[in-house]
Write a structure and sequence with these properties.
This protein is an alpha/beta fold and 326 residues long. Helices cover 36% and strands 14% of the residues. It has twelve helices and twelve strands.
Length: 326
Amino acid sequence: MQNKKVLLTRIFPESGIKSLKEAGFDVTAWDKDRPMKQDDLIDQAKKHDVLFCTLTDQIDKEFLKECSHLDIISQFAVGYDNIDVAEATRLGIPVGFTPDDLTDATADTAFGLLLAASRKMFYLHKSIIEGKWEYFRPNANLGIELKNQTLGIFGLGRIGIEMAKRCKGAYNMKILYHTRKPKPEAEKELGAKYVDFETLLNQSDVISVHCSLNDSTRGVFNKAAFDKMKPNAIFVNTSRGQVHNETDLTEALNSGKIWGAGLDVTNPEPMQPDNPLLSMENVAVLPHIGSATVEARNKMAKTTATNIIEFYKNKKMPYVVNPEVL
């Protein structure tokens, strides 16, 4: 790997950096807490052979036009909607990603958000800070129980399957799912049932979103979708904020069309501190921390580095979005 230069666009875990250095790469890491500005990103990438990036980096057509010399782009994330994969493919640039490393961490986040929303935990915690914990009131602060309810999974991939396992194991929840095509193995393991999107909306007490962001999923949870959900339903999204229409979600919660929501992703990100969702008692919002465990982030950094190392060593990548270019 002599003289191959790798640009790391953020301060990433040392596990990935160590692997690259041990393999003989010349590593340059952006050392500021904030993301690079786009001009800086392009300027720096022009001086390197490899881009080690993440979701906050816009690897669009303009970037790729300026940096078409790159040998490989390796993404520190399971998603890659920030990358113009079609253009990268046209230019012959393979795009790596980390699909397996954050599955449990993100499923735990989804499960936690479900519990927090169902019992109004975030809102009630804030009420203590605001001095509103005064005395016991039998009819106040009531949440809803999850045992024997129906979970609807939108996007039954790795994370969706793990979320279903948690809900079934903890609360004996019935599992419905909607995805691009049925998954017989998952159905056998979970006792899950494949349904169309409308049935998922109509019959689920909880809907948990685990899909990728693309043209077919962008904005799919909108007013029309929320209107078809149960009034006791809880909406959980740990995939991408653009999958739901935030204005429509806010209205659905305000009007009682659905009961609650748990969000690890918003649109836009970061969410503004005066967003009305943050003051609702039956809503729990986190700042996109689904993969934020020591274990997951270390594994992600290692996999991102391994994609690069294996590309140069064997012209193969363990996890590649566009294998046709290899």
